[in-house]
Design a protein that fits this description.
Radius of gyration: 18 Å
Structural class: mainly alpha
Helix content: over 70%
Distance between the termini: 41 Å
Number of helices: 5
Largest sheet: 2 strands, antiparallel
Strand order of the largest sheet: 1-2
Oligomer: single chain
Order of helices and strands: HHHEEHH
Length: 118
C-alpha cells in the first residue's frame, strides 16, 4: 500500500512540475519562447516518438545484461547517460530530417490511417 501511495505522490509532483513549466512557457515573451523551444527540442522530439524510444531502450537494456558479483544486472550510470543522450540525439535528428518516428509511422500504416486523416 505504501508503494502505491508513493507512486501516486510522485506522479502528482511530476504533473505539477509539467503544468508549471507549460504555464511559464506560455506566459513568456516570444523571444523567450523561441529559446525555450530550441533548448527543449530534443525532449520534444523524444516525446513525439515514445514507442520508438521505449522499444530502443528495452532492446539496449536486454543487450546490456551482465553478471556482476554473481548477480545478473543491467544497471550502470554510463548506460543511463548513454540512453538519455543517445535517445535525445536520435530523436532530434530523426524528427528534424525525416519526421514521424519509425515505429509510430509503422503503426500509422498498420492502422490504415492516411496522412491526411491525421
Amino acid at each position: 500500500m505504501g508503494e502505491s501511495l508513493q507512486a501516486f505522490g510522485n506522479v502528482g509532483v511530476c504533473a505539477v512540475i509539467v503544468a508549471v513549466a507549460v504555464l511559464l512557457t506560455g506566459l513568456a515573451r516570444p523571444g523567450v519562447r523561441r529559446v525555450a523551444a530550441a533548448v527543449l527540442s530534443p525532449i520534444t522530439a523524444m516525446g513525439a516518438m515514445p514507442l520508438t524510444i521505449y522499444t530502443a531502450h528495452l532492446v539496449v537494456l536486454a543487450a546490456a545484461k551482465r553478471e556482476e558479483n554473481g548477480f545478473i544486472t543491467d544497471d550502470s550510470w554510463p548506460l543511463v547517460i548513454g540512453l538519455i543522450v543517445g535517445s535525445m540525439a536520435f530523436a532530434w535528428c530523426w524528427r528534424r530530417f525525416i519526421g514521424r518516428g519509425p515505429l509510430e509511422e509503422l503503426m500509422r500504416i498498420a492502422s490504415g490511417r492516411s496522412r491526411t486523416a491525421v
